Amino acid sequence: MIIALDGPAASGKGTLAKKLAAHYGLGHLDTGALYRAVARDMIDAGKALDDEEAAAGIAQQIDPASLEDPELRTAETGAAASHVAKLKSVRAALVNYQRKFAERPGGAIVEGRDIGTVVCPGADVKIFIEASTKVRAERRHKELVEAGQDISYDEIHAQIAARDELDRSRTISPLVPAADALLLDTSDLGIEAAFKVAIELIETNR
Ligand code: DC
Q1: Distance from residue 199's CA to the centre of ligand 1 (Å)
Q2: Cα–Cα distance between 67 and 83 in angstroms, integer?
Q3: How much is the pLDDT for 75?
Q4: What is the CATH number of the domain that holds 102?
Q5: Which domain holds residue 78?
């Protein structure tokens, strides 16, 4: 079974994807980490974020072991990721990586922005997670403060709003629910409640 889980920044899809992967015994791919890894490597190499040739070269050689790097989780890397994510050849290289992962025996849960629309249009179940900007900013702020980062709520709110705008307005693979995606709004749901609803959606639609 392939489950596509899409949604905006800090919608809770990462936590939900991990829980669903454990529940169903599926492989799990956080595709945002791939874009973040390209952004991190571009910054480390001193390249401009719109240098498409350099970014495509990096995207073709992603090291899966480097996807656990805590540096990927910073707000700066997230913001830089939404810039490299606009580049056509970066997306082509990473989509290739994602499709290979999704086709593994036993299936996978793949989370991102364009999984239901572009990466796995034939996924067995597509879920699109939503949550208000305020709720997402509160969640992400708490997460970063707990991880020891010194950043204000207002700054996070502005960053999330800016990333939404970039993700939704880009020409290639914008953040948009697939026509056959099931919508799950987690604004008023804790993680356990969201998990329960997701299981119900999957069981009814798989
Ligand atoms: O989910 P995230 O915050 O880790 O994603 C980081 C950035 O990567 C996000 O701004 C948009 C981009 N992204 C994308 O364009 N397509 C995906 N499938 C996943 C992430």
Answers
A1: 24
A2: 18
A3: 82
A4: 3.40.50.300
A5: 2-201
